[in-house]
Amino acid sequence: MTAAYGSSTDQGLATKREQYKYNHVHIPPLAMVDTLPEAEQFSTPWKLMLAKVGFQLLVNKIIVNYGDQGDAGAADDVKAFLQATLKETLAKYKGFSKLKIIFKGLKFVPRLVFGQISTDVKEVEDLMQDIIKTMGRDFLEDFAGDVMQKLTVDAPQGRCTTIKEFKELFATIDLPEIAYTFQEDETFAYMRVAGPNSVMLQRMTEPDPRFPVTEAHYQTVMGEEDSLASARAEGRLYLCDYGILEGAVNGSFPTDQKYLYAPLALFAVPKGDRRDRKLHPVAIQCGQKPKKFPILTPQSNHYAWLCAKTAVQIADVNFHEAVTHLARTHLFMGPFAIAPPVNYQRATPFINYSAPISLGCWRLTMQRNGSLFIAAAA
After folding, report:
1. In a domain, 224, yes or no
2. Which of 79, 89, 165, 229 is geometrically suited to a Cys-Cys bond with 160, CB 3.0 to 4.6 A?
């Protein structure tokens, strides 16, 4: 229920209605916030936390591009890179503007040019705070732009062609544990229930003509003492269906062709008398048409099965970004984030609960100019 007009409350609501406006043009006809109010922008502590993570990534990138892959001397490599870039940025400023920048930076520049720079994120927090507080925004943006340009221009060219080359990209950042197990069937099944998109599994109650898995297919994986029919009857059979991706246009950004399939993947839980009752991958069909796409199982050719699992993973991340994440989180919750502040003067339990979630989504979705920012996986 909205407040009555003509009251003092109405004036506050009028202000809110100026700050929070619906826009149906960004992605017609969806209701989205036009521009994000200043009060809803990220806080300074959050930005500092992000900057610390960014520094960690920066150090890793510098070592990958110029350094010694994390061996002794990594800090010196970082220091040399930042010194050179700082000089290049300063060279763009002339006369009084340059003197003003140097004067502002007297507090931290000696530490950057002459002191020791640690690759430990915690030890650089004070330095980063000094830079953020004392330097002008224009200079910081120029310096950051020069850093990114140098890293982009001097980055290793081409694609990684081996697992070893991928691992070498983690010079100072710990390699994720999954890097050692991602090809295993157990990890593949685990991702269906504990991965970023654990919403796809659906219990099968009847055969699916698009995916004609046979008893022979099933028993080569789950054993002859089990059967496809009993697994279905006992509720132990599950399907991941990515049919929504059928007909999707394969992208080529930034330069190379990409390939997206609409696979069907079957999983099962062993019978109740088995000690190991973890979810098992049983079969994958890389498309919706059985005459066009063969059924593969863990007993198929090793690389064929690995390619099939990869097709499922790619489909899964695309579904996650476009549907689970963007559509069902950001776009769905957006209208609810706008409605409370323009209809309620005081906080309600609903606002207290929903605002941090829904407005947090919008901070990540909307740029300052109100345009939609989407990091597409496809």
Report:
1. yes
2. 165
- The total domain count for the chain is 2
Indicate if 148 and 200 belong to the same structural domain.
no
What stretches of the chain show up as alpha helix (H) in DSSP?
8-19, 44-65, 74-91, 95-104, 109-113, 125-134, 137-153, 163-167, 185-194, 215-222, 228-233, 302-319, 332-343, 349-365
* Residue 227 in domain: yes
Asked which of 301, 336, 359 is the last residue of a domain, the reply is 301
Q: Clarify whether residues 124 and 192 are in a common domain.
A: no
pTM, whole model, 2 decimals?
A: 0.76
The answer as to whether 355 is a domain residue is no
Q: With DSSP H G I counted as helix, E B as strand and the rest as coil, what are the percentages for the chain, rounded to 5?
A: 55, 5, 40
**Virtual CA dihedral for 163, 165, 171, 177, nearest 10 degrees?**
-10
**Cα–Cα separations (whole angstroms), residue 79 to 117, 118, 125:** 6, 9, 16
Domain boundary among 274, 301, 328: 301
ω into residue 29 within 30 of 0, thus cis? yes
Q: Strand, helix or coil at 266?
A: strand
In the structure, what pLDDT confidence band is assigned to residue 258 with cuts at 50, 70 and 90? very high
Model confidence over 293-344: pLDDT tens digits?
A: 999 999 999 999 999 999 999 999 999 999 999 999 888 888 877 887 777 7
178-203: pLDDT as tens digits: 999 999 999 999 999 999 999 999 99
DSSP conformation class of 19: H
Domain that holds residue 141: 44-153
